[in-house]
Each structure stands twice: as C-alpha cells, then as structure tokens.
C-alpha cells in the first residue's frame, strides 16, 4: 500500500509516517515509480509506535523497544536490556514530575500570599463609587 492508504487506515498523517521511517521505526520499499510501498505489517507497526509514543517514550526509545513488541498495544518481551531502558525512562519521568510538583507548590504559595496581601491592601469592592 502507498503512504496515503497507510495514513488513511491508521489515522496518522503522511508527514509523521515519513518521520517514523527516517527514525528507523517503519520500513518501506520503493516501487519502480519511486513511491513508498508498505506491506500489511506496517499497520500493526504504526499502531505500536502510537501506543509507545502515548506512553511518553521517545522515538529513540521506541526504536530500541520495537523488536521486543508483540501485538497492537503492544506487549513487550522483558529482556534485561529492555527493562533497564524502560526503568531509566521511568526514572526520568519521575524526575520531571517531581520538578513540576515543586513548581506547582511554589506557584500555589505565591497565590496564597498574593491573595492575603491583596485582601489586606485592597478592601473588598462593595459596588459603590468612592
């Protein structure tokens, strides 16, 4: 199938499919006319890629994981190298979440202080002109 059909059948635009190919995530042969040709396995591969991207994995991580992927969701075969890579990624996500939580807490504290100082400085508006 050509890239337009793969795009239509997966809901992934052609630009993204070319990106997946450039990243080594998806393979296409070339017809005599030079157009990309995908076999039926490309449908499953694109679905796997989309699920793994939704899990927050980078295209580099996915390239490493795809040989261990089975099924659409996909299910991953747990070899030691694969588990180490996924644990490392999970650790990076945990660090990002901790940083976001610290930022959130600091912002919430600024809001509390600003509301308290604002209430002390500016009396409540009662609707009458001064």
Q: Helix share of residues?
A: 55-70%
Could you describe the largest sheet, including whether it forms a barrel? 2 strands, antiparallel
DSSP helical segment count: 5
Rounded to the nearest angstrom, the radius of gyration is 25 Å
How would you name the oligomeric state of the polypeptide chains in this document?
single chain
Distance between the termini: 74 Å
Give the SSE order as H and E letters: HHEEHHEEH
Mean pLDDT rating = 88
Strand order of the largest sheet: 1-2
Strand content: 5-15%
CATH class of the largest domain: Mainly Alpha
From the helix content, strand content and strand pairing, which structural class follows? mainly alpha
The figure for the number of domains is 2
Provide key terms for this protein.
130 residues; mainly alpha; Multidrug-efflux Transporter Regulator, Chain: A, Domain 2; two-stranded antiparallel ribbon; 5 helices; HTH merR-type domain-containing protein; DNA-binding transcription factor activity; DNA-bd_dom_put_sf; DNA binding
How would you describe this structure to a colleague?
The protein is mainly α and 130 residues long. It folds into 2 domains: 1-77, Multidrug-efflux Transporter Regulator, Chain: A, Domain 2 (Orthogonal Bundle); 78-130. Helices cover 62% and strands 6% of the residues. The chain has 5 helices and 4 strands, in the order H-H-E-E-H-H-E-E-H. It has helices at 3-10, 14-22, 41-54, 59-65, 80-121, and strands at 29-30, 36-37, 69-70, 75-76. The strands form 2 sheets. A two-stranded antiparallel sheet has the order 1-2. A hairpin with a 5-residue loop joins strand 1 and strand 2. The longest helix has 42 residues, at 80-121. The protein is elongated, with a radius of gyration of 25 Å. The mean pLDDT is 88.
